[in-house]
Amino acid sequence: MSKIAYIFPGQGSQYVGMGYDFYKEFSEAADVFHSAETALRYNLTDVIFKGPEEELNKTINTQPAILTTSLAIYAVLKAKGFPEPSFVAGHSLGEYTALCVAGGVELFEAVRLAHLRGKYMQETVPEGKGAMVAVLKLPPEKVEEACKLASDEGIVEPANYNSPEQTVISGEKPAVEKASQIAKDMGGKVVSLKVSVPSHCSLMKPAADAFRLKLAQTPIKNISIPLVQNYTALAHTMAHEIRENLYRQIFSPVKWYQSVQYMVQEGVDTFVEIGPKNVLSKLVQQTVPHVRVLHVEKVEDVDKVLGVLT
């Protein structure tokens, strides 16, 4: 029997206007956007639908914006009778969306966690001090080697193991630049990422420590739909494990392609990406080309994908 995983995007997938067609057409989606505003006490929908882009791209806004948009789309899918998944997972911030979908945290709390996570991350490293770069066409071991060789310039570490041919590095700007050059010399291609904080490296440990108290105060429940977490690339259902892994995820690499491989080993043959853009769909296809990958981003996607799944 076919097993389905629902996967949710993280930072970098945002754009002004995302989710607006769902907001206009479905009360279930509009309710999610309005609930998020109530939780945050500011007009998040204006930032999402009208921008400006610079405002949406601030980590403190980006994180709750992507989570809210993905959850608004999911609320419509649930109302339309989409099947329950065998697993859920999300990339970085998307893990909070996945946890909410699995019933481990309420929408109100998930939005507040996303906002606070973005706030602490933004405040920890001054803008311009850190950098993130995607390294393509090199195996992860070579990227790790490039980081080690550049460490005399400062902190630089693998941040996202996105696919067997894409690893993102993160850290202090001079060290990231040196590691990028080394990776190019090894035959890799490098792409600088437009981010305001160097996520998933040891520079984020103070942010994680500040956020840990908020995590401890947030009601997180045991879940029946397993959540495959970035920190371990394994499935978790117990609240205490989920909470600890969310804390560690902030300053540790995202094991995305390992998570995808784990789900396939567990029998998943269909991945449905829910949310803005299709970044994760491409990464899944690079990692396990033989599986079925679907994506819901626009209203017209809903019936098409539902037709394939049922």
TrEMBL record:
Its EC number is 2.3.1.39. Residues 7-310 form the Malonyl-CoA:ACP transacylase (MAT) domain. Keywords: Acyltransferase, Transferase. The lineage of its organism: Bacteria, Pseudomonadati, Aquificota, Aquificia, Aquificales. This is Malonyl CoA-acyl carrier protein transacylase. GO terms for molecular function: [acyl-carrier-protein] S-malonyltransferase activity. It is an enzyme of class 2 (transferase). GO terms for cellular component: cytosol. Coiled coil: none annotated. It catalyses: holo-[ACP] + malonyl-CoA = malonyl-[ACP] + CoA. NCBIfam families: fabD. It comes from the Bacteria.
